[in-house]
Amino acid sequence: MKIADRVQQIPPSGIRKFFEIAEEMDDVISLGVGEPDFTAPWAAREAAIDSLKAGKTSYTANRGMRELREEIAKRVASQYDLAYDPDDEILVTAGASEGLDVAFRALVDPGDVVAIAQPSYISYVPGVTFAGGKPLSVPTREEDDFKLTTEILDAHGVADADMLVLCYPNNPTGAIMTEAEMAEVAKFVREHDLTVLADEIYADLTYGDEHTSIATFEGLRERTVVFNGFSKAYAMTGLRLGYAMAPPEVIAAMNRVHQYTMLSAPTTAQYAALEALQSCDNEVIEMRKQYNRRRQFVLSRFEEMGIDCFEAKGAFYVFPKCPWDDTDAFAEALLQEQGVALVPGHVFGESGDGHLRVSYAAGLNELREAMARIEAFLG
Predict the structure, then answer these.
(1) What is the phi/psi pair of residue 113, to 5°?
(2) How far apart are CA 64 and CA 258, in angstroms?
(3) 364-378 and 281-305 are packed helices; what angle lies between their axes, rounded to 10 degrees?
(4) What is the pLDDT of residues 14-64, one digit of tens each?
(5) Which of 79, 71, 37, 86 lies closest to 272, judged by CA?
(6) Are residues 76 and 223 in contact, defined by beta-carbon separation less than 8 angstroms?
(7) Can you list the positions of beta strands (E) in 178-288?
(8) In this predicted structure, what is the pLDDT of residue 12?
């Protein structure tokens, strides 16, 4: 059977390679996974169980339960002073990943140029390619703490692109953008009439400066699709629930794709998400405190080992420089000899080469052991 060219040109996930090696080994500490080690708050799990007991197992509206969309709208209004109409400006999706995929297919025509700030989440480039667009890499730099600047946007021809994709707080670097820094990007976007896809799945996980959504700047709400969800902040990865917010005509187009593929996001997960928004903020605050403690520990240990690592202030990743020139060889040797799984930075784009993504979404005892093993490996 013939496989479509656009699928064949996409390589397998570079993260998956290390998962598969680790799965064959015993006593592996994985710091390569972007998944919280916490469980979802009990009230959210209980709401999911109760919905099943009540027999609520049918489809919901394509756009998601209205009560959930209303709660999302309230949350965004209170956090960012952004108003979205739950009737026609919010779409509930099977994770933020599905939202991004639907947006690419709804908004990208064949040949459209989509600029992607990198290093970045591994699904953006394949998503653009599957939609027939042309990905344009926009490499950020360590000397800028992996922030997106107008100098970088200018240097890489983003002014002539059709769309800009950005993710802050950033996966894989842990970089954040301050309000003033994001204002400069917003100004560039307005001047060059770009559409923006803003992946804000880690918005609740910052340590110090609070997250500023690019949609809050003048003239940006009208040209931005914002993505968020429940996987990271509420530790609900397996429930697969996210949402997108955008002007009505964009959500209508995205829903057209969504209704022919997903029909609706998982019903049980929607009940869990509704409860999470209504009663689980204290658990999010506690998880954030724990992540921050772990972040500080990991950064201090890399400093003690003499490994250069910029101060990540968001998500649950740090992005140290690799002590070896060959990051693949380093990651494979570390895994084979010490049983610690990390991910080479080039997996997230060329500008990530020379770095390693280290997730601190693991318990402190595991992190202590992992850091000790890395230190022993380095001798």
Answers:
(1) -95, 125
(2) 11
(3) 20
(4) 777 777 777 788 899 999 888 899 999 999 999 999 999 999 999 999 999
(5) 71
(6) no
(7) 195-199, 224-229, 242-245
(8) 80
The DSSP line for 32-55 is: ---S-SSPPPHHHHHHHHHHHHTT
Neighbouring-strand partners of residue 90: 245
CB within 8 A of 332, min separation 6: which ones?
Answer: 18, 21
233 confidence band (pLDDT: 50, 70, 90): very high
Across 214-238, average pLDDT: 97
Angle at CA of residue 201, ends 186 and 364, nearest 5°:
125
Model confidence over 193-211: pLDDT tens digits?
Answer: 999 999 999 999 999 889 9
Distance CA 240, CA 243 (A): 10
pLDDT at 323 over 90: yes
Amino acid sitting at position 246: A
Other CB atoms within 10 A of residue 354 CB: 17
C-alpha span between 262 and 354 (Å, rounded): 38
Q: Could you tell me which residue, 16 or 278, shows the higher pLDDT?
A: 278
Cα 366 vs. chain centroid, distance in angstroms? 23
Which residues are CB-neighbours of 95 under 8 A, at least 6 positions away? 229, 231, 240, 241, 242
For residue 223, what are the CA distances in angstroms to 158, 194, 220, 245, 324? 16, 7, 5, 11, 42
Q: What is the mean pLDDT of residues 230-250?
A: 97
**Percent of the chain residues topping a pLDDT of 70:** 100
How many C-beta atoms surround the C-beta of residue 337 within 10 A?
11
pLDDT tens-digit readout, 152-182: 999 999 999 999 999 999 999 999 999 999 9
- Give strand pairing partners of 196: 164, 224
Minimal CA–CA distance to 314: which of 172, 159, 218, 207?
207
Where residue 212 falls among pLDDT bands split at 50, 70, 90?
A: very high
Neighbours of 267 (CB within 10 A): 18
Say which residue the tokens 């570079």 belong to: 14
- Using alpha carbons, select from 239, 309, 232 the residue that is nearest to residue 268: 239
H/E stretch holding 341 reads strand 340-341
